[in-house]
Amino acid sequence: MEQVNYDKIREMIARCRWTYAKTMPWAPHEYIVRGECPLTEEEFLYFIDMQRRFGVQERWGSYNLPYLYIDDYKYWTMGASYNETTIINRAKTDILGDTLSFCGELERIREDVRENQPFLLNVLLEAQPNEEGVSRILKGFLSYRQDGEYVVLRNFVRKFLNEELASQIKKPVLQEEEYVTDQKRIDILVYEKGKYAIVFENKIWDATEQENQLTNYIRGLKDQKYGLTDDQVYIIYLPSDEGHGPTDRSWDKNIQKLFKNRYRKVSFKEGIISWLGSEEMKSIGDPNFSQSRFLFSDYLKRVFNLTPTDNMEQREIDKHIKSRLDLNGDRYHDMETLNETIKRINGCVKELERNRRMLCCDAANEWMANLERDFPDLEKHSDIRLSKYIMAGVILPYKEYKKGIIVLLEFIGQDLIYGALYTDDTKKIRVEMQESDGIRPFYKSKEFTKGVDWLFYKSTSLEDAYDNLKNLIERMTNQIG
């Protein structure tokens, strides 16, 4: 059976002087030309034949070509007949190395720019508040009073909703993490019983929407506690930027239509930052308020790379990219170059992510084996799927519920968390569980963060993950019996 004579081809490759394709900097490669390189006609045809017969089929743009891999390069031709083919191409296969090198170059640019900037430590950025933390900060601003008047809340409502509603604000109740129908949690709720309610849905990190999330909020506000009708409810949706918003999953089209004039999307990047910097907000003379406003505004600008330092970084990075990719100002050429570069880098990311998830699956399988060893009498909970979920834990009974609480480790994107989840059986008694003697020490503890479907959770390193899970299972078993 015929095979590729790699030694023969290596010798042919070494004799050639490969020319860099200057006209295609977005797809770095070299080439040799038939009749202009040291290869004889017979050798050139042999190279083409081996590449087409034994190459690995791959897609590039609209082409689907065979690539012959030899050492650090891959070789290909464009598919014309043997007699008509005049060029053999090659490109380095170390895309990952090139990508890491490019990332390093951009990191060095950022470091150089920041080293030359005045020192400013923003404690909010250092604390890295989660979504709930940002909600608390925003609620704090909305709660600010001057001579007994909710001047900041009224200003916000006047700017983003309407003057009529702003004039109704007298003695509002401001709540964070307010639970309504089906124990759905409103991030910030502002209301006066029987008069109005403003629902703030915080999506600063563009978290996944829950099924019927906004619909359940609206329904819950009809409860006697609030005494409201649909036309007294307003929705403020707070995504990261204007490109994000609620979908039909969160509320159906009929409710969207009903709330057309009582819904506003106010993004943190374009809306909240602008509001914090408005003349009305600046005019509040309280020095403590001014300092807090500056810190929150600066924090958000840093999150979204909008500070003067970020702008300087961006300009230097843009200059470097233009030089590195030989962007020449021709819109079509530059767009093609950038699209192809992004495609190549995304290809690396895809493969890296696949390898990372395989390691996550291996870790979850190991945790399951450890749980079988350490807790043989407890029912196990596992979902180890490369395409979606990777989790491992146990199910604890709670009172009369055999399946009461799931205690587990789970990979959420690139984060690893551990904690306790409600089950389908215990979702209907959430508040009772939260206040029970067995659960309250964990639920109320500052050690953990409360979630929507999670009773409580906490981030962990991979190294400490199983020990943390084991410790939590033991503690909860002792607490709830």
Description:
Strand 13 (390-398) and strand 14 (401-412) form a beta hairpin. This protein has helices spanning 6-15, 41-54, 95-115, 123-127, 131-142, 151-160, 163-168, 213-220, 253-258, 268-276, 279-282, 287-303, 308-324, 331-374, 430-435, 440-443, 465-480; strands at 19-20, 30-33, 56-60, 63-70, 73-76, 87-92, 173-180, 184-192, 196-203, 233-239, 263-265, 379-384, 390-398, 401-412, 415-422, 454-459. The radius of gyration is 30 Å and the shape is globular. Helix content is 43%, strand content 22%. The strands form 3 sheets. A 6-stranded antiparallel β-sheet has the order 1-2-6-5-4-3, covered by helices on one side. It is of the alpha+beta class and 481 residues long.
CATH first level of the largest domain: Alpha Beta
What is the strand content? 15-25%
Q: Which structural class fits the helix and strand makeup?
A: alpha+beta
Shape: globular
Write the layout of secondary structure elements.
Layout: H1 6-15, E1 19-20, E2 30-33, H2 41-54, E3 56-60, E4 63-70, E5 73-76, E6 87-92, H3 95-115, H4 123-127, H5 131-142, H6 151-160, H7 163-168, E7 173-180, E8 184-192, E9 196-203, H8 213-220, E10 233-239, H9 253-258, E11 263-265, H10 268-276, H11 279-282, H12 287-303, H13 308-324, H14 331-374, E12 379-384, E13 390-398, E14 401-412, E15 415-422, H15 430-435, H16 440-443, E16 454-459, H17 465-480
Helix pairs in contact: 3-13, 10-12
